[in-house]
Amino acid sequence: MITELAVTTIAHAIQLAVAPVFLLTGVAAILSVLTNRLGRIIDRSRFLHGGSLSAVEINQAIQTELKSLRRLAHLIHWAIGLCTTCLLLICSVVAVLFLGSFFALNMAVVIASLFVAAMLCLIMALLNFICEIYLATAHVRGGL
């Protein structure tokens, strides 16, 4: 039988988990944007590879664009991996919050460490995203 204290403890854990859950939603939205950008890069790359792949038929401009697309895809892949790691770390924060409450353990250091790691992953993912946007914009302007 669940005691009133246990219900109160669980309710408090749920309150603490609300902020990380909202963060999950935000990072998931960023992940959606990243996957859409990666899809566009892949579509453009497939279009450029669409014809014969003989060296005679592929001119220098297409080779340069494909190299640029590979660079953009590399940055997006890293951003996606880091966002996914961030999401896993945030989920771990929520799980540890509940486990700590349920078993009456002081998990403050673990929770703080997981949250800081999640934020560092998110920062690195966003830096990769900014670099990808910068390179894509420079490419459109003819800077690459």
Task: Characterize the structure shown.
- There is one protein chain.
- This protein is mainly α and 144 residues long.
- It has one domain.
- It is built from 3 helices and no strands.
- It is rod-shaped.
- The mean pLDDT is 86.
Assign an overall shape: rod-shaped
Helix content: over 70%
Please state the CA-atom Rg, rounded to the nearest Å. 22 Å
Our measurement of the CA-to-CA distance between the termini, rounded to an integer number of angstroms, reads 67 Å
Total helical segments: 3
Coarse structural class = mainly alpha
| Biggest sheet character | none
Count every beta strand, where a strand is a DSSP E run of 2 or more residues: 0
The overall pLDDT average reads: 86
Question: What is the string of SSEs from the N terminus onward?
Answer: HHH
Report the uncertain regions: none
Strand content: under 5%
Number of domains: 1
Layout of SSEs?
Layout: H1 4-48, H2 60-102, H3 108-140
Which characteristics define this entry?
3 helices, rod-shaped, single chain, 144 residues, mainly alpha
Question: Outline of this structure?
Answer:
With 144 residues, the protein is mainly alpha-helical. 84% of the residues lie in helices and 0% in strands. The protein contains three helices and no strands.
